[in-house]
Amino acid sequence: MSDRPSKRKGKGWVLALTCVVLLGGGGLAGAALVDPTGSDEYVALEASKKSLETELTEIEADYEVLQEDYDVMADGIRAREVDVEKRETAVATSEEKVKAAEATVKAREDAVTGAEKTKAANTVGDGTWVVGQDIAPGTYRASQPVGSSCYWGVYRSGSNAADILENDIPGGGHPVVTLAEGQDFKSARCGTWEKQ
Fold first, then answer.
1. Which of 9, 87, 118, 142 is deepest in the core (most CB within 10 A)?
2. Residue after which a domain boundary falls, among 105, 121, 137
3. What is the pTM of this model?
4. How many domains, the chain?
5. pLDDT tens digits for 58-82?
6. Which residues of the chain have pLDDT under 70?
7. Environment class of residue 143 by beta-carbon count within 10 Å: exposed (0-12), middle (13-18) or buried (19+)?
8. Which range marks the domain in which residue 112 is found?
């Protein structure tokens, strides 16, 4: 062996010294690091977080109650809308029935009015009438039984009742007279005459 100092031994010290420095420094560094969960700020933040989580839970519970209420109301609204639609349909149907009934009544009124006008046009009362101008030609019958004072006469038109073609004082019953154009008809106290 030689007396020269070994390069290995010098390196060993350096390595040992480095380890001591690193371990010592690491220990110091480790001792310098503090647990953050113990700080006042961390504790305050944790309390605030728990408070917010509690508030969120309460809000979610309130939301669920409100959602249930909304669903009940929405179902009620839908049911009412369906009911309103049914009623509107029923009203529309009723209105159509009323319109149809009104149209039927109007048609009947028109028919009755037409019949009344025809009857009025074919009904003659007391007075002197020109056939073909005032009244239509045809056969007329007394509407009601006549009394003993009834008088009727048929004259040639334009004769001013001087040219008597036919006349009568029937004294009762329902007298009948046939009239033609070119004649005048006079009725007195006989009531009305209806064209047959």
1. 142
2. 121
3. 0.47
4. 2
5. 999 999 999 999 999 999 999 999 9
6. 1-14, 16-17, 19-32
7. middle
8. 35-121
SS (HEC) of the chain: CCCCCCHHHHHHHHHHHHHHHHHHHHHHHHHHCCCHHHCHHHHHHHHHHHHHHHHHHHHHHHHHHHHHHHHHHHHHHHHHHHHHHHHHHHHHHHHHHHHHHHHHHHHHHHHHHHHHHHHHHCEECCEEEEECCCECCEEEEECCCCCCCCEEEEEECCCCCCCEEEEECCCCCCCEEEECCCEEEEEECCCCEEEC
Tokens matching residue 22: 């690193």
Q: Same domain for 106 and 134?
A: no
Q: Is 142 inside a domain boundary?
A: yes
